[in-house]
From TrEMBL, chain A:
This is NSE3 protein. InterPro entries: MAGE, MAGE_WH1, MAGE_WH2, MHD_dom. PROSITE patterns: MAGE. It holds the Pfam family MAGE. Residues 1-222 form the MAGE domain. Signal peptide: none annotated. GO terms for cellular component: nucleus. SMART domains: MAGE (SM01373). It comes from the Eukaryota.
TrEMBL record, chain B:
The gene is Nsmce4a. Residues 134-149, 156-166, 236-247 have a biased composition (Basic and acidic residues). This is Non-structural maintenance of chromosomes element 4. PANTHER family: NON-STRUCTURAL MAINTENANCE OF CHROMOSOMES ELEMENT 4 (PTHR16140). Belongs to the NSE4 family. It comes from Promerops cafer (Cape sugarbird). Component of the SMC5-SMC6 complex, that promotes sister chromatid alignment after DNA damage and facilitates double-stranded DNA breaks (DSBs) repair via homologous recombination between sister chromatids.
Length: 226, 263
């Protein structure tokens, strides 16, 4: 049951949409409901066990898109994290800090991560929330005019307000009584787990060639958040 | 209406508006007016909250323009007047090379703890006890039409998500094929060049598997060239109808490829 759950989680994670406990129960655990927490714990441990992805010979479990060999089952280095304790929703993140770009060699994934990082940085540096009308300011090639296609990302509005929101990287909240209705962007729970204010501030600092302490209040906020 | 004016930290408009509202409220004796007042309070408090936020971020002002400029530099912007190529992205102030977002993404990956995604599982999940009993079932789709060696095994229960992932892959491969063909419609694409991944045997097999979907669905065709080597080309939507009416157009090809041959 544990290995079935592990595989279920890995497959579900492909689209980065968070996994609900109900789905796990329905599809994998079923009659073993009573052992649910035990099974989930063990699955979590299996995913975690030491290592990470490396090139090499070994029994092949599967291939990541870049053709790296994974030696089962102890070499995942992943963590199962509950991002919603009320509704029991989980995501998989990488235990190994700062995975190298080789994990994301599918071009589109990499490009989206670049865009996402820019947006998350912008949101944080602007005080943790940004209005939809301002969001396009973070990069000159971005515009959130509906149906205007971006040369790389296509329908940008859809990417931000649907895909990234479904994956829990971003959250949108309507601003009450605005006409026409406006909303604001904030970090979603996946962003909170997969990166940090400190990381993001370091990114901004690197891009601008300054020390992170240059932005005093953001720096202290990032520090406090650890 | 004057939201922006009120947000201006130097303005007292918000305070004035609140005082005015207070004065007006004394004269209220109808429910409708009270409701308007309540609405006003909500808006006013939102503006107040935003003002407070602005004050906070003004402490360490973040210059988004400078950030955007520096980002463009990092991404390799070409600031000359001349457009580099058709692929370049047009941004104010210059052109970004076509791999600009890749460059940024490469850097961005370091800041995320993102789990790698598994798209393809070959064989059974061999682990220490308990060994799972898995029913490996050939996907029904794949057994029709072209057959290849080492078909990917698939757990019955995961059929659904695996199917979606497969469909997505197939779409992606079709797009790649079409792009290659558009760029150079007169040079045939060698089937083996197209599917073989020099670094991964498993990936090669995976590619062949996905290509088989394309041929099955009439989106691509494989022909033999003068040297009897297979070439692949996409089928334009306009051709689709003709293909069906031609009798005997379907062929079956069994391609066997083992690791030694692949090497």
């Amino acid at each position: 049951q544990v290995s079935e759950l592990v595989q279920f989680l890995l497959v579900k994670d492909q689209k980065k949409i968070p996994i609900k406990r109900a789905d796990m129960l329905k599809n994998v655990i079923r009659e073993y409901r009573d052992a649910y927490s035990e099974i989930v714990n063990r699955a979590g441990r299996t995913l975690q066990e030491v290592g990470g992805v490396r090139q090499g010979k070994g029994r092949v479990l599967g291939e990541t898109p870049c053709g790296l060999t994974l030696v089962p089952p102890q070499v995942f280095g992943l963590q199962l994290v509950e991002i919603d304790t009320k509704r029991h929703i989980y995501i998989l993140i990488n235990n190994l800090p700062h995975a190298e770009g080789e994990y994301l060699c599918r071009g589109k994934e990499k490009e989206k991560m670049g865009l996402l990082l820019v947006i998350l940085s912008f949101i944080f540096m602007k005080g943790n929330s940004v209005k939809d009308s301002e969001a396009a300011q973070c990069h000159p090639s971005l515009t959130l005019i509906p149906r205007k296609q971006h040369s790389v990302f296509g329908d940008l509005r859809k990417l931000l307000t649907e895909e990234f929101v479904r994956q829990k990287y971003l959250e949108t909240t309507p601003i009450p009584l605005t006409d026409p209705p406006e909303f604001k962007f904030q970090w979603g729970p996946r962003a909170e787990k997969e990166t940090s204010k400190k990381d993001v501030l370091n990114f901004v600092a690197k891009i601008q060639g300054k020390d992170p302490t240059f932005w005093a209040s953001q720096y202290s906020e990032a520090d406090a958040a650890r | 209406e004057n939201r922006e004016a009120m947000l201006n930290s130097k303005s007292n408009r918000l305070t004035e508006a609140l005082e005015e509202a207070n004065r007006l409220f004394d004269g209220v004796c109808r429910a409708r007016e009270a409701a308007l007042d309540a609405q006003f309070l909500v808006i006013a408090s939102n503006i107040g909250k935003e003002k407070a936020n602005e004050l906070h971020s003004e402490m360490s002002a973040f210059d988004s323009t400078a950030f955007a400029e520096d980002l463009l530099t990092f991404m390799g912007i070409n600031r000359t007047e001349v457009e580099e190529s058709d692929d370049s992205e047009d941004v104010p102030g210059g052109f970004l090379p076509s791999d600009a977002w890749q460059t940024l993404g490469e850097e961005a990956a370091k800041y995320f703890r993102r789990a790698p995604t598994f798209h393809y599982m070959m064989g059974s999940f061999k682990s220490d006890p308990p060994v799972p009993k898995q029913r490996i079932e050939r996907q029904k789709k794949a057994s029709r039409g072209k057959a290849e060696r080492a078909m990917p095994a698939q757990l019955k229960r995961m059929e659904e998500s695996h199917q979606e992932a497969t469909e997505k892959e197939v779409e992606r491969i079709l797009r790649i094929l079409q792009t290659h063909f558009e760029n150079d419609p007169n040079t045939p694409i060698s089937f083996f060049d197209f599917v073989i991944d020099p670094n991964s045997f498993a990936r090669t097999v995976e590619n062949m598997f996905h290509v088989s979907f394309l041929t099955r669905d009439g989106l691509a065709r494989i022909k033999l060239d003068e040297d009897d080597l297979p070439i692949i080309e996409p089928i334009k939507p306009s051709e689709e109808g003709e293909e069906d009416s031609r009798a005997g157009a379907r062929n079956q090809v069994v391609i066997s490829l083992d690791q030694k041959e692949w090497k």
